[in-house]
Amino acid sequence: MANLGFATTLAIFLAMVSTATFVTYTEGAARAFFVFGDSLVDNGNNNYLATSARADSPPYGVDYPTHRPTGRFSNGLNIPDLISQQLGAEPTLPYLDPALTGDKLLVGANFASAGIGILNDTGIQFANIIRMPRQLELFQEYQQRVSALIGAEQTQRLVNNALILITLGGNDYVNNYFLTPVSARRIQYNIQDYSRYLVTEYRKILKKLDDLGARRVLVTGTGPLGCVPAELAMRSSNGDCAKEPQQAAAAFNPLLVQMIKRLNQELGSDIFVAVNAMEMQNDFINNPKAFGFVTSKIACCGQGPFNGIGLCTAASNLCPNREEYAFWDPFHPSEKANKIIVKTIYSGSDKYITPMNLSTIMAIDSV
C-alpha cells in the first residue's frame, strides 16, 4: 500500500506540475515572438559562431541597458526588442544562447543571423552564418523542444498564436549583387529580373513558415539601400543616395508587397503583413531634422567618408550623442531610428504596412 500511495502522490504531483506549466503558458504569458532574418534583427546568434559578421565588441551596445555589446548591431535596442516591448514581453533570446531553456522557451526565440539573405550564396564571405534553410530547421527543433515541455497540442497553439518577424533582402543586394563591380549575380540578372527572382525565393521561405504553423508574420523588405552611409562612402561624392542600390530597393519592395497579397489570397487569410521598410526610413532620411536627427548621412560609428568605411570598432570615430544620428554604423539604424520604425509598424497607415498594422493585429487577435 505504501508503494501504491507513493505512486498516486507522484502522479498527482506530476499532474500539478503539468497544469502549472499550462497555466503559465495560457494565462500568464504574452504571446510568443519569433524572429528570422539578418543583422537588422539578430539578437546575438552570431556571437556563438566562427564568423566575422558579429557585433560582440565595444562600442556596440554602448546605450544598451547593460552598456555592453550583446551581438545586436545597434548602439542599444534593436527592432525585435522594441516589438517585444509592444507585446508586453521580455526580449527573445538568441536560439543559440544556452540560457534559452525551460520557461524562457515559451517567450519565443530569435533565429536571425547577421550576413544572411534570401539566397544561400549571399554572405559567403562571412563563412559560418545561419542561412534561412537552417533557421527554419532550428524552428522545427525549437517546436520539438517545447513539445517536450508542454505537449504537442499546446506547442501548436503557442506557434499558431505567435507573432513572427522576418527581415530579409538587403544582404542579397549589398553582400551579393553589388558586392563586387562584376558579380556572378550581376552577370546573370539585371536589377529588375534579380529582384523578381529574390521575391520568388522569398515566397518559398514564407510558404515554409506557413507550413510550420506561422499565422501572423511581419515581412519586411529592404530599406533605402543607396542611402546608408556605407553606400554613400563607396558610391557617392556629394552625399546623394547611390543610384543603383536605390533602383534595386525601388524594384524589390513593390514586388514583395504584390507577392504577399497574392499569397494571402491563396491561403485565404491575412497571415503575412508587408512592412515597407523603405518608406519608413525614407521619411527620416529625407527630412532628418523633423525627427530630431542632425544627420541621416553620417554614421555615428565608423571611419572614412560619412563614417561609412569598414566596421564599427573601438578604433572608430564615435559620436557623443547617438540621438542625433539616424544611422548607428555604416549599415544599421540607431536605436532612436529603430524606435521610429517600430512605432510605424505599430500604428502606421497602409502606406507603410499592409493589410494592417501591429496595433490592429493585436486588437483582432485579443478577441
Number of domains: 1
Distance between the termini: 50 Å
Strand order of the largest sheet: 2-1-3-4-5-8
Number of strand segments: 8
Oligomer designation: single chain
Unreliable stretches (pLDDT < 50, length at least 5) are 1-25
Secondary structural class: alpha/beta
Question: What sequence of helices (H) and strands (E) makes up the elements?
Answer: HEHEHHEHHHEHHEHEEHEH
Briefly note the CATH topology name.
Answer: Rossmann fold
Question: What is the C-alpha radius of gyration, as a whole number of Å?
Answer: 21 Å
Give the integer mean of the pLDDT values.
92
For the biggest sheet, the summary is: 6 strands, mixed
Outline, from the CA principal axes?
A: globular
Beta-strand residue percentage: 5-15%
Helix fraction, binned, reads 40-55%
CATH architecture: 3-Layer(aba) Sandwich
Assigned CATH class: Alpha Beta
Tally of contiguous helical segments: 12
